[in-house]
Each structure stands twice: as structure tokens, then as C-alpha cells.
Amino acid sequence: MLSGYSSSAVLSRLRESPDCGAQISRRVGVLNTGTKFLGHLYPNLDTLVEKGLVKKGDKDCRANVNTVTKCGQRVLEARRDWERQYVEL
What we know:
With 89 residues, the protein is mostly helical. The protein has one domain (4-86): Arc Repressor Mutant, subunit A, CATH 1.10.10.10. Helix content is 60%, strand content 11%.
């Protein structure tokens, strides 16, 4: 399972632009050291879809395109609000 940080990183990445899992792993995986992130990305993308935070659609016959839903955007905004309140940057 991805941590809250990694889930937020995936949602943030998808908020920039919809993408397939391979591109997400290339861009977000850089933030994580080790292979644990990459090995758990696809099952956790499915979990984000099940929770209604990400919508999965067909990109082509080999890949899906993932998009943040309005609910996912609200989750990101709530996390940012929490960070502003409790984390000094």
C-alpha cells in the first residue's frame, strides 16, 4: 500500500495532467528511494479508483489513462490545508 505521502504525490501528478501508470512511475518514482513504490503503484492506482479519487480510462490497447476526480481534488486541497496548519515550510 502506498503511504499517504505517495498517494498524494500520485494525485498531485495526475492533477497536473492525466497520465498512464508507466509515466506516473517515472515521474513520481523519482521522489521515492527504492522499488517498493514501483511495485505497489498499479494496485494502489486501483485503490484510488475504487475510492473515487482517480478515474481510469482507455488510452490505447496497452495502457490506461488516469485522471484525478473532483473528489480527488478535494482530498488534495484538504491535505494542503492540513499542511499549512501543522507543517512549517
